[in-house]
Write a structure and sequence with these properties.
Blueprint (H helix, E strand, L loop, with lengths): L3 H6 L5 H8 L46 H21 L6 H8 L3 H7 L3 H29 L3 H18 L3 H9 L2 H25 L7 H19 L7 H17 L2
Helix pairs in contact: 3-4, 4-5, 6-7, 6-8, 6-9, 7-11, 9-10, 10-11
Length: 257
């Protein structure tokens, strides 16, 4: 009724008229030539942003090592100043300028020995860790020959707890380790060393030896560390109770098959 019936039977002299009718034929979808083709998106003026690789502050280049007596005294003053700053304000207050002021050295002198605050923390952590590892190596060597090797190790762990408590700034330093994934890995290195000591001792003295002494050793190293960290958060009056619980747990894991 709109005239499309006649238009379908009419002969056309040119193609333009025929195309104009074809685009309206029922059931036939044809492209309309009067509509512009979609344009491609214009190129972006800004290049795609590549996420920056996170830099590990512990990968900073090493600085000069103190060789003379005066330079060694300067480094020791910096380390002691760093501990005092961290004990007062924690990891948040731990910065190069505050440490230099506390140690009574200029910032340039501090940077000549330590590339950043993380390298300072690394040195503090490594010094305390080396002291603990040396104590454990001596204790485990004695336990291998002791008649009651389990009691010998339990006594050594109590000695380790006292050593940690007496190391300057150990509590604040442990809190700083928790705040930095890179520094926390240093602590895990210490746990791995202690775990190997326990595994070696179990293989030599435990009868029967556990099926997986390495796993047993790692579990013991991890929970002893966790208990000592928790113990430091409680009043001194309760420390003896922590020691008793830790020793009871340790005896069970050292004696069970």
């Amino acid at each position: 009724m709109f005239g499309f019936g006649r238009s379908q039977t009419k002969m056309y002299d040119n193609r333009d008229q025929q195309r104009a009718v074809q685009k309206w034929k029922p059931g036939i979808m044809t492209k309309r030539h009067d509509q512009p083709s979609p344009r491609p998106d214009p190129p972006s003026d800004t290049a795609p942003v590549t996420p920056r690789k996170r830099v590990n502050p512990l990968d900073a280049p090493k600085r000069r090592r103190p060789k003379q007596k005066r330079s060694r005294e300067t480094v020791e003053a910096i380390l002691q100043g760093a501990i005092r700053v961290m004990e007062r304000g924690g990891f948040e207050a731990f910065n190069v300028h505050a440490i230099a002021k506390e140690a009574e050295v200029n910032v340039a002198t501090l940077y000549s020995y330590f590339a950043n605050k993380h390298k300072l923390l690394e040195t503090l952590t490594q010094n305390q860790l080396n002291e603990r590892i040396a104590m454990l190596e001596d204790a485990f060597a004695k336990a291998k020959a002791a008649p009651d090797w389990i009691s010998s190790i339990c006594d050594s762990i109590i000695d380790l707890a006292r050593l940690r408590a007496n190391q300057a700034g150990s509590v604040a330093l442990r809190q700083a380790l928790h705040a930095s994934p890179q520094l926390w890995e240093l602590d895990q290195d210490g746990n791995r060393i202690a775990a190997r000591m326990v595994a070696d001792l179990l293989e030599q003295r435990a009868t029967p030896c556990p099926a997986n002494p390495k796993l047993r050793g790692r579990i013991i190293a991890e929970y002893v560390t966790a208990i000592l960290d928790m113990k430091a958060q409680f009043p001194v009056q309760s420390h003896a109770e922590f020691d008793q619980e830790m020793v009871a747990l340790l005896r069970v894991h050292l004696s069970m098959p």
